[in-house]
Amino acid sequence: MTALQISNPGELNLVDLEKARAGRSQVVIRVVRGGICGSDMLIYHGKNPFASYPRIPGHEFVGEVVENGEGSKKFKPGDRVVANPVVSCGNCYPCRIGRTNVCTSLQVIGVHRDGGFAQYIAVDESNLFRIPDSLSWDDAVFIEPFSIAANVTSRIALDRSDRLLLIGAGPIGLTILQVAKMLGAKVAVCDMVGSRLVHASGMGADMVINTAKENIGARAAEFSDGDGPSAIIDAAGVPGLMAGLAGMASPGGRIGILGFSTSISEIAQYEITRKELTIAGSRLNNNKFPQVIEWMASGKLNPSSLLSRKFPIGEARKAFELIDGNKETILKVLLDLEAL
């Protein structure tokens, strides 16, 4: 089978490998589409601390079941499926309390183990979900990115009473915007890149704030009628923002954090305690695929608005180069695994 492999940082090649085989309770998927994520780009550039080499990237992928392993009964050949890339042990404390996305031995398909940028992949059937016939392959790839948005909005219990300050209008920020608007919240979106804010406005942002030109604190106060945002999500992952976000938040507010930086974020206990702020980390997704699939099938989300380009897998290098050279304008690039 043909696969896209990163043999070492910066070395991206199509390779011919033995076709994937299903183990016990697994199925083999013929991969149809894959989405290139920021974490794939980090693996390519040698900046993802969880990845080793050689690695087949790809944790956003969809396809068709072609083979069942021993004991696999949930799916049959021909079923259209999407894979949740979160692999957990089921035994540790977080798994026992239903927080499998922070399993102590967590692995992510496409990061810790080979992923979906290959013609075939074997996946545990417990990680698969059926794709409704009403969803196209292109739209279905976005189930995983939208699960990130579903998770962080759940972590801060976002609802229609909230005024959300959303930091960052990249691909993940825009998925969060769509979910937040669907939940009924008012949303102000901040970014330094004007073109991204144009996208945010088109997707329903109630206010956009260009932080290269405007004072974010003053605009956030204006947006929240002087109370401060009741909810804040940092989708940019900038450590230096934490103190400012706590200062801007309303008393009783919630702050959702997605960043993975190891740099120190300075924040005074005073702001957290006097306001009784809730600060919630959010990693990957905790069984959010069924909910996202329902949202998408009922037309509540618009994944096609995030699609920038699509390349055949044989032109994957061009796709990676396009993203590298157009970080401010490109949203999501897909790979077509059916077209070599």
Q: What string gives the helices and strands in order? A: EEEHEEEHEEEHHEHEHEHEHEHEHEHE
What is the overall silhouette? globular
Residue windows where pLDDT falls under 50 for at least 5 positions? none
Name of the CATH first level of the largest domain: Alpha Beta
Largest sheet: 7 strands, mixed
How many helical stretches? 11
Number of strands: 17
Rg, please? 20 Å
Helix content: 25-40%
The CATH H-level superfamily of the largest domain is: Medium-chain alcohol dehydrogenases, catalytic domain
**Mean of the pLDDT scores?**
97
User: Can you name the CATH architecture of the largest domain?
Assistant: Alpha-Beta Complex
Q: How much of the residues is beta strand, in percent?
A: 25-35%
Derived structural class: alpha/beta
End-to-end Cα distance, whole Å, is: 11 Å
Number of individual domains: 2
CATH topology of the largest domain: Quinone Oxidoreductase, Chain A, domain 1
Can you offer a commentary on this structure?
By secondary structure, the protein is of the alpha/beta class. It folds into two domains: 177 residues, Quinone Oxidoreductase, Chain A, domain 1 (Alpha-Beta Complex); 135 residues, NAD(P)-binding Rossmann-like Domain (Rossmann fold). It is 26% helix and 26% strand. It has eleven helices and 17 strands. Strands 3, 4, 5, 8, 9, 16 and 17 form a seven-stranded mixed beta sheet that branches. Strands 12-11-10-13-14-15 form a six-stranded parallel beta sheet, sandwiched between helices. Helix 4 crosses helix 5. The longest helix is centred in the middle third of the chain and has 13 residues. The chain is globular. The chain starts with a strand and ends with a strand. The model has no long low-confidence stretch (mean pLDDT 97).
